[in-house]
Write a structure and sequence with these properties.
By secondary structure, the protein is α/β, with parallel strands linked by helices. The protein has helices spanning about 10-20, 60-65, 70-75, 110-125, 170-180, 255-265, 270-280, 305-310, 320-335, 340-370, 375-390, 400-405, 410-429, and strands at about 5, 25-30, 55, 80, 85-90, 90-95, 105-110, 125-130, 130-140, 145-150, 155, 160-165, 185-190, 190-200, 210-215, 225-230, 235-240, 290, 295, 300-305. The protein contains 13 helices and 20 strands. The longest helix is centred in the C-terminal third of the chain and has 31 residues, at about 340-370. Bound molecules: flavin-adenine dinucleotide (FAD). Flavin-adenine dinucleotide (FAD) binds near residues 31 and 55. Flavin-adenine dinucleotide (FAD) binds near residues 32 and 165.
């Protein structure tokens, strides 16, 4: 049995805690926010409008169910998704997807899912240090320095430290300064985002079983995504550049009213006004891409989830990959008889390739969604037609595989590359 300290009790950290506690390890989680299971807790970060909705695809669902979490309880945190709707000049083009492994992706209420994970972690007697922030990590001593809200400092020592503390990871920072030849690259997307929420999605004409995409007709100005969540509301991620008009820094109500009329013109004026008011009041959030050359240090420290490979949500895979990381980590511990050093080395070997492929695809999708590219729809139609006509040589629709299977990301990337070659040939012909 190992004593394991997990920094970050978000999605990846809490799922890791459940798996590891089940395997008999002594698990301690340090989380800077409050306890999500407490009423009125400070668990949801008021500044991060990311807290509202995420889509969980089949690889994420599998990782959660394999931890013994009930399918029924998971499904209560979300709505099944059967397709995507792209808004172009006020009209929706709907693309239905066919399930391949008998599971539907879920449009999740992030807070409800976080609570579910915390409930299971509590059942497995995981010890949480809520409202404690990790300040530093000693990679050799395998200890973390944490600070409570009252300023009290303490050291926690373990056999393994897991950094599940998100895109701005303190554990990764310690690896950057404490490891030789640790390479790290951080870049920001041209767009940031704000999340807006409207109640009564059905009354506004939104189907709860579709994911909505906006901005394909915006000349690269704007990319948006929306999904309903189980309380019946719909959350919109509005991605805009930081400067110009319209932009995240536009406080001119007329400019932004024009923006909402143009892209959400089918909504009633009262709903657009509500969106405008929320937009003006909310702070913006950055979209960041983080690449690290390794995810581990000896058998002492491991990075998972966004701490290892944060990216923008244009592929909707950050959480899914984070949850899959956990599943892979536990499988490798099992494979190596719980020996930490070989399991962690294997983790970097397997997951770095997958993380690079996932991030490359997310960036490519960002380019497609944030550039004027109506050919996108023709390309999709062409792909489906070609696969139907020549199923043995022409690869299937990548989006279906992405949402409905757990095919490794590097294989999906190969499919995408093959389709691009075929597509170019098709265009030349
Ligand atoms: C707008 C938006 C939409 C998205 N939509 C999707 C989607 O549809 N599907 C999808 O798969 N992914 C989506 N993502 C990505 C997804 O949110 C992340 O990939 C996912 O949250 C990563 O989980 P994590 O547990 O690794 O990190 P996080 O969720 O960031 O959790 C990190 C935890 O660590 C804690 N923490 C941080 N620093 C410290 C510290 N120093 N000490 C103690 N605790 C600390 C934080 O409070 C937090 O609880 C989206 C992201 C954004 C921004």
């Amino acid at each position: 049995m190992h004593k394991i300290i997990i920094v970050g009790g978000g999605l990846a950290g809490s799922l890791s805690a459940i798996y590891l506690a089940q395997r008999g390890h002594d698990v301690h989680v340090v989380e800077k926010r409050g306890d999500p299971l407490q009423e009125n807790s400070a668990s949801a970060d008021p500044l991060s409008s990311r807290a509202i909705g995420v889509s969980m695809t089949v690889r994420g669902i599998k990782a959660v169910l394999a931890a013994g979490i009930s399918k029924q309880e998971l499904e209560q945190c979300g709505e099944p998704i059967v397709g995507m709707a792209f808004s172009v000049r006020g009209q929706y083009k709907v693309r239905e997807l066919t399930p391949l492994e008998g599971l539907f992706p879920l449009s999740l209420d992030r807070t409800a899912f976080q609570r579910l994970l915390n409930k299971y972690a509590a059942m497995h007697k995981v010890k949480y240090y809520f409202e404690h922030k990790c300040l530093d990590v000693d990679l050799e001593q395998k200890s973390v320095l944490i600070q409570g809200q009252d300023g009290t400092l303490q050291h926690l020592h373990g056999d393994l430290i897991i950094g599940a503390d998100g895109a701005h990871s303190a554990v990764r920072r310690a690896m950057q300064s404490g490891m030789r030849r640790f390479e790290f690259r951080q870049s920001f997307f041209r767009h940031g985002y704000k999340t807006l929420v409207l109640p009564n999605a059905a009354e506004l004409g939104f189907r709860k079983d579709l994911l909505y995409f906006f901005g394909m007709d915006s000349q690269g100005q704007f990319a948006g995504r929306a999904a309903t969540i189980p309380d019946g509301s719909i959350s919109f991620a509005i991605c805009l550049p930081y400067s110009g008009a319209p932009s995240l820094s536009s406080h001119n109500r007329d400019v932004m009213a024009g923006f909402f009329s143009r892209y959400f013109g089918s909504l009633p004026p009262a709903s657009r006004l509500e969106m405008l008011n929320q937009f003006i009041a909310l702070p913006s959030n950055d979209l960041i891409n983080v690449r690290s050359s390794t995810f581990h240090y000896k058998g002492n420290v491991l990075l998972i989830g966004d701490a290892a490979h944060a990216t923008a949500p244009f592929l909707g895979q950050g959480m899914n990959m984070a949850l899959e990381d956990v599943y892979v980590m536990v499988s490798l511990l099992e494979k190596h008889g719980e020996a930490l050093a070989p399991a962690l080395a294997d983790f970097t070997r397997q997951r770095k390739v997958q993380a690079d492929a996932m991030q490359d695809m997310a960036i490519a999708n960002y380019e497609a969604l944030s550039n004027p590219n109506l050919i996108f729809f023709l390309q999709t139609r062409y792909t489906r037609y070609m696969h139907k006509k020549f199923p043995r040589v022409y690869p299937p629709d990548m989006a279906e595989k992405l949402y409905f299977t757990s095919v490794p990301y590097d294989q999906l990337q190969q499919i995408q590359k093959k389709q691009n070659v075929w597509y170019k040939l098709g265009r030349v012909n």
